[in-house]
Amino acid sequence: MINVAICDTNKAHLEYIINLADEFSCGEKLRVCGFLDPLDFMDYLQIHCDELDLILCDTRLGEYDGIDVAHNAQKLNYDLEVIFISSKLNTVFDSYCVRHVYFVPKPIEIRRFKDAMQLAIKNILKKDAKYLVMATKGMVSKINIKNIYYLESDLRLVIAHTTEGNVEAYNKLEQMLPLLDNSFLHCHKSYIVNMSYVEKLQDQEFVLFNGEVIKISPKRYKTSKDAYMRFIANSFDNVHISSEHVEKTISSKIK
Questions:
Q1: How far, in Å, CA of 158 to CA of 5, rounded?
Q2: Tens of pLDDT, residues 28-77
Q3: Strand stretches in 36-177, DSSP E
Q4: Structural Rg of the chain based on CA atoms
Q5: Cis peptide before 105 (omega within 30 of 0)
Q6: Which terminus of the chain, N or C, has fewer Cβ atoms within 10 Å?
Q7: What is the 3 state secondary structure string of 189-211?
Q8: Element (H, E) at 80
Q9: How many other C-beta atoms lie within 10 A of the C-beta of residue 180?
């Protein structure tokens, strides 16, 4: 999940930017909080800046300097990515006092916005990437765990089924689980599934988005079902809360 905060004092612009951010999320899940009021935005940054991955804002936020706002935010969170979106082209050079990935002029060109989001998300994922190292037959492979559909045990081998193909290593599933994150579920003695790639749960099996089916053992079914429902609920809550926040911000400030 990538946490994003967006501020624009124009309601239509804010809604448009939120929709574009969702459209060009590079397949990543976003939790987006939108703000019309710069003071609300700055208050939010003071409290939640360390939780954020990316902010998008104008270089001028009403009477406030958006460049200073972004600069202060990066003092609180050094890894924070910034995209400026502004019609004030005379602020382009001033914006370079802040480490940012892109200055997108208004009116927004889709190509430029898409490039900005791709660069920002690439930087975020690079910082957050967690890898699984698998070695067999003199070969060592470093796999980003986000690219793993599931792990399969086959006798003494563990096979990682990934978006880039399969990788094998001599190991046990039990020893791999602590190296993963909470997206992974040990649902069968022979399988650990990445719930991020699960499309649905049916008939004691997980169906993945790529069409593959992962069995759930009877003794693990209840705990697997409960874990998957919590995983879905957490994802839904993140989306719901951010949407509610955006709508609340908009309706409370624009009449």
A1: 40
A2: 888 899 999 999 999 999 999 988 999 999 999 999 999 999 999 999 99
A3: 54-57, 60-61, 64-65, 81-86, 102-105, 131-136, 139-144, 148-154, 157-162, 165-170
A4: 21
A5: no
A6: C
A7: CCEEEEHHHEEEEECCEEEECCC
A8: none
A9: 17
Compute the distance between CA of residue 38 and CA of residue 49 in angstroms, rounded to an integer. 15
Question: Token pair of 99, please?
Answer: 């480490």
pLDDT tens sequence across 9-34: 999 999 999 999 999 998 888 889 99
> What is the arithmetic mean of pLDDT over 84-88?
95
- Does position 113 have pLDDT exceeding 60, yes or no? yes
- Between the two ends of the chain, the Cα-to-Cα distance in Å is 32
Length of the chain measured in residues? 255
The tokens describing 101, both together, are 């990935």
Q: What does the alpha-carbon distance between residue 210 and residue 208 come to, in Å, rounded to a whole number?
A: 5
- The pTM of the full predicted model, rounded to 2 decimals, is 0.59
Residue 152's DSSP bridge partners are 159, 191
Q: Is the separation of the CB atoms in 34 and 122 below 8 Å?
A: no
User: How would you class 3 by CB atoms within 10 Å of its CB: exposed for 0-12, middle for 13-18, buried for 19 or more?
Assistant: middle
Residue 98, phi then psi, degrees to nearest 5: -120, 135
| Neighbouring-strand partners of residue 106 | none
Give 235's pLDDT tier (boundaries 50, 70, 90): low
> Position of tokens 């969702």?
22
Residue type, 77: N
Task: Please give the structure tokens belonging to residue 10.
Answer: 């124009």
Amino acid at 150: Y
